[in-house]
């Protein structure tokens, strides 16, 4: 307390202010310096905050503190404003906190609780409401600009573990943060139970939310960090986590035009990020990037929409591509994927082969179908990787090959050259190479030797990646369904369109329990290389 008393003298916490607070609030204007111009409002804000802080220090309690009401208007701030979770800044009309004159390396508003106040019988009574409350009108926090800012618009959390106070139950409502390196920075020391509502973190250069690295392991932090009806837009990373034990929940939020949506850094080893009823649009990077992170992380997507149109790379089509990578566990249910263009090269799964997939179910696609997860493929040897190079087409373990011109068309398993488009396929890349005289143009087909299981009513999808050195032909698919005991049922046939990755889908008929796939290739000449032929379930 001696240290706090000295601080009170140096900061003016004990300054007398006329008109104490009979109604439970004070107007910010009560703390304006008399006889001075209004070109800089920093002192007014800090005096008002320190006034409320001094009441708490004298009473050793955060219950019954007055709120600070901020009238509508623009306030120019040239230094960092320091507050605590139990001091309430409330707008009355639209409020603009203009930090644009701030030195580029400084933060805007810090919310820490590095005090010696006891918890009291009510257990931190002053914390349980937003410390930034824009209910009466939006609170906008404008930074020095995305091109040059190095600080964060809002910082929550303590700097040392030895302080008894915690930044808990602290958050904001109706807040807009723009023009910073990061909108919201979390220092993971005694920081938890944070909730933000109806706020926007947009046009900040690097991050919408960043959990600060450099603190080592988080200390008593990360429990139930909740965001509801919030928007994260225009940053290299929407959510950048570089500490342990951070558990985030996003409900009914939008993630518009970011590089990565979720990024886990090297110091992120434990924690969960969950998305429920969210809309995600415009991704230059990945939906989940955990390439540099630990193995005990999880991401979950429920009943959400993902439209991965590129943000800045306008030259790239919105085609299926890998969107989840690394060692964080992944699950998704009821996710609608919206692609606008077919794949042109390898049949790339949305989820990387190295990702531990907990569950993927009830996927739906608009316009263009995609393979969610390579582990969900139901036919054996879809990558032609189980037979050694040199194995003839007639001797494949899991495929039956048939040609209309036997003896003239030859084929074998070969090692394929790795290209940028195919580098996402795990392990050595093999394929089936067929050679046919140009004048023959003989049809060729591949059929799965072993039936794969299906269930009535579900949708199965087949796709093939094939290239030719000669004329480009067409690919036809036939799903033959069987009831138990091998009784044949109806077949579903389709033919690929020109200039698209060959694909087909079929609905499993009633009574079916198994199916086989036949892929027929016609009009191909020269050398035909088939590098992938996969079947998976869409639901």
Polypeptide structure, described:
The protein has three domains: 2-258, Single-stranded right-handed beta-helix, Pectin lyase-like (Pectate Lyase C-like); 285-306 and 315-376, no CATH class; 393-537, Galactose-binding domain-like (Jelly Rolls, Sandwich), CATH 2.60.120.260. 5% of the residues lie in helices and 41% in strands. It is built from two helices and 43 strands. The strands form five sheets. The protein has a 21-stranded parallel β-sheet that branches. The chain has a nine-stranded parallel β-sheet with strand order 3-5-8-12-16-19-22-25-28. Strands 33, 36, 37, 39, 40 and 42 form a six-stranded antiparallel β-sheet that branches. Strand 39 (474-483) and strand 40 form a beta hairpin. The radius of gyration is 30 Å and the shape is elongated. The relative contact order is 0.07.
């Amino acid at each position: 307390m001696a240290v706090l008393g000295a601080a009170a003298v140096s900061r003016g916490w004990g300054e007398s202010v006329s008109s104490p607070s009979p109604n439970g609030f004070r107007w910010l204007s009560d703390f304006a310096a008399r006889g001075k111009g209004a070109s800089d409002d920093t002192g007014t804000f800090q005096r008002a905050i320190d006034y409320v802080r001094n009441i708490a220090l004298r009473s050793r309690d955060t219950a019954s503190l007055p709120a600070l009401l901020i009238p509508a208007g623009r306030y120019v701030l040239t230094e960092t404003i320091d507050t605590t979770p139990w001091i309430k800044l409330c707008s009355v009309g639209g409020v603009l906190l203009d930090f644009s004159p701030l030195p580029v390396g400084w933060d805007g508003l810090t919310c820490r609780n590095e005090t010696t106040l006891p918890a009291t019988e009510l257990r931190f009574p002053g914390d349980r409401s937003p410390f930034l409350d824009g209910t009466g009108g939006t609170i906008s926090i404008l930074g020095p600009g995305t091109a040059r800012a190095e600080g964060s618009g809002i910082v929550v959390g303590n700097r040392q573990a030895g302080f008894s106070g915690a930044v808990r139950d602290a958050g904001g409502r109706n807040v807009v943060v723009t023009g910073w390196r990061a909108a919201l920075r979390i220092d993971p020391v005694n920081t938890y139970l944070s909730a933000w509502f109806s706020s926007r973190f947009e046009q900040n250069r690097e991050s919408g939310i960043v959990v600060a690295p450099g603190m080592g392991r988080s200390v008593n932090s990360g429990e139930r960090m909740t965001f509801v009806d919030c928007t994260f837009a225009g940053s290299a990373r929407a959510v950048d986590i570089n500490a342990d034990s951070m558990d985030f929940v996003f409900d009914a939020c939008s993630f518009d035009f970011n590089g990565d949506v979720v990024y886990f850094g090297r110091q992120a080893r434990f924690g969960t990020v969950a998305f429920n009823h969210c809309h995600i649009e415009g991704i230059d990077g990945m939906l989940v990037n955990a390439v540099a992170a630990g193995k005990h992380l999880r991401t979950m997507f429920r009943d959400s929409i993902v439209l991965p149109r590129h943000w800045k790379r306008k030259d790239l089509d919105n085609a299926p591509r890998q969107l989840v990578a690394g060692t964080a566990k992944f699950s998704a249910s009821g996710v609608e994927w919206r692609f606008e263009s077919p794949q042109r090269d390898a049949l790339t799964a949305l989820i990387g082969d190295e990702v531990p997939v907990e569950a993927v179910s009830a996927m739906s696609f608009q316009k263009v179908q995609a393979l969610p997860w390579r582990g969900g493929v139901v036919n054996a040897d879809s990558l032609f990787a189980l037979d050694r190079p040199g194995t003839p087409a007639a001797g494949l373990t899991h495929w039956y090959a048939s040609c209309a011109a036997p003896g003239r068309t030859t084929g074998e398993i070969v090692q394929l050259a790795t290209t940028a488009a195919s580098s996402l396929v795990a392990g050595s890349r093999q394929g089936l190479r067929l050679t046919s005289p140009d004048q023959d143009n003989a049809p060729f087909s591949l059929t799965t030797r072993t039936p794969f299981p299906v269930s009535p009513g579900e949708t199965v999808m087949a796709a093939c990646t094939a290239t030719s050195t000669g004329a480009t032909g067409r690919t036809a698919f036939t799903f033959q369904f069987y009831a138990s005991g091998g009784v044949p049922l109806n077949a579903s046939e389709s033919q690929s369109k020109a200039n698209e990755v060959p694909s087909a889908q079929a609905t499993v008929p009633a009574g079916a329990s198994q199916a086989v796939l036949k892929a027929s290739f016609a009009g191909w000449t020269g050398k035909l290389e088939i590098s992938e032929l996969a079947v998976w379930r869409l639901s």
